[in-house]
TrEMBL record:
Record's protein name: Membrane protein
Pfam families linked to this entry: MMPL
Domain SSD: residue ranges: 204-329
Membrane protein topology class: Multi-pass membrane protein
Location relative to the cell: Cell membrane
Ranges of Low complexity composition bias in the record: 705-718
Keyword Membrane set for record: yes
Organism encoding this protein: Planotetraspora silvatica
Superkingdom in the source lineage: Bacteria
Family named by the database record: Belongs to the resistance-nodulation-cell division (RND) (TC 2.A.6) family. MmpL subfamily.
Amino acid sequence: MFGTLGRFAGRRRRWIMVGTLLLVAFAAVWGTGVFGRLGGGAGFDDPGSPSAHADRLLAGPLGRHANDVVVLYESDHLTVDDPAFAGPVQRALESVPRGDVTRLDSYWSTGSASYVSEDRRATYAAVQLRSADDQERVLQLRKIQDGFRADGLTVRFGGATAMTDQVNRLTLRDLAIAEAVSIPILLLLLIVIFRSLLAAALPLIVGLTAALGSLALLRFVTLFTDISTFAIQVITILGLGLAIDYALLAVTRFREELSAGATVEAAVERTMATAGRTIAFSGAVVAVSFAGLILFPSRFLSSMGYAGAGTVVVAVLASLTVLPALLTAMGSRLNPARIRTADPASGRWYRVAHAVMRRPLRNTAAIVVVLGALGLPFLGVNWARPGDWVLPSSADARVVTQEMAGRFAADPGKLITAVVESPRPAGPAALDAYAARLDGVPGIEGAAVTGTAGGQARITLGYSMDPMSRDARRMVADLRAVAPPQGSTTSFTGMPASRADIVDMVTSRLPWMALFATAVSFVVLFLALGSVVLPIKSVLLNLLSLGAAFGAIKLIFQDGLLDGLLGFEAVGAVDVNFPVLIVAIAFGLAVDYEVFLLSRVREEYDRTGDVAESTALGLQRTARVITSAALLVAVVVGGFALSGIAFMKMAGVGLVIAVVVDAFVVRALLVPATMRLLGRWAWWAPAPLARWWRRHGTDGGGHTAPPAARPAEAARPA
């Protein structure tokens, strides 16, 4: 089928190119409109969690009592008692439009000394916005933000809504910076790796097609569901990353076929029958890995799922149609006389494979121990949800939090709201007694009933500790353990409560996502390779490379290792969304490389029946593709390590580690060693499945029934 598709694309190349240009033009105009349709809020919360339930109740008649924005006014030499300080602030606060503001409290409106710093050179205004939706609150803040400015004073904006707005703005800015840094390096490396300017243009063409096509597809999805701003990051990484992988694989195989004497048409057909088949299978695994994110209820993760799966589908379709059309059009110019395929038996990776396979058990054990040790620190991880800690230390929201902790009696942004529900209204005495019991929980600093509506009551609690600390998680558990008034139930919301709910949601669903991705990858790898042993081995090896990346991330971002070099301030926690994204992207790419390598090993094994020789030949013919692809993907995602947003930096560093370890250690060293240990058992499948695969699994890809075992080979399966 894939060979036929390659032949068709070659013969209809002009129509395919014209159609692609029209689709790209349409996507560039209509698809880029998705930027105006992405959610202003981050969408980290679980809609089915107790904290989200409390938020929905507060959006009703009961109403919220929260400080969405904290506006901090500071002066180096004036105090709040000076008219030059008090006058501009009072005029600014009076001029703020009240249409989107429910409550605006300050030192002058309340007379409370808690609104003034100990040195009296700073004060703040606490603002509650009208909307109960986090996306709408961001838009409301943007409309009124300029009204808070006061001449002669430093004005900063903190609080949850200001933090979300600043994260959104910095994310788009850092995305542009990452691309500006990584793309020139990428272009240079493409020319060096492909050894041809013409060939280096292929992944860029496919990548541009995939990225713009994905934007158009994502805009279509926004017609039916909300999509987070951060989905654009996935499109950037995958669009270029997969285009590089697939173009490298296809061009390398195309050059091999031309060097073997094939015509351009025959080389394209054979390339798509082999490399095209591999692209389809590996793309299916990556798409399924991202589709697993849709199992998570938070908009942030489900958005990544839609964006990732859509990008993979578009990249695969472009690689199976546009790429063979371009290969046919460029023909032998992609394989100039100076580029010839050398004898694989004389190659460096061929020698490395045989060196590793001479002592397979010792080498396997050594690599497994090292990678396992790298993953051990991850057992001590402290999970957090994104908050102002993800921003640079100079960002307004981060500075406001630090100033509140160091200069004021309490932080107005540190509030937890308890919503009490009962069939009939609870008496004031019962509610006050319950609030007093909540106030006795360690970490709580004040609790008061601030509203009632029918059978619902609102209790507002202040707290003092870091909301991302382990102590804060215990505080939430203690609050939920306090017995509410008889016949009532209580839901808690606020940063510590939502953090606990998000962590519970991710950690409870991550195993199911991993099981889903593992099961589907098992099926796809069996269809690609005809073995039930290799899919199991692939999953186990992928866990090793992922574990090493997770352990490194814990040491770097939670414990502060290399924080000065990477330019961030460790807060003793790791974003709980991080492992989900890394599993989706890194697991998909790892399977990508596994299919690249073992598909070629299978070809050689079907031809020779020699496990060691087929493994060495397969590694020699694909190692340059795999390591080059990993290097280029590392450049693409490495640009995010320059971001000022902690979870973007975390994703960039984590993916670089995972991809490099997988390509250079697991695929290049551990796979040959384990293949030698398994021997012919690597290709084992139950007899019914083996017969089915021999009938249906060939697909013109060079796979045939394995040759009969020679006595010497069959005698040493492991």
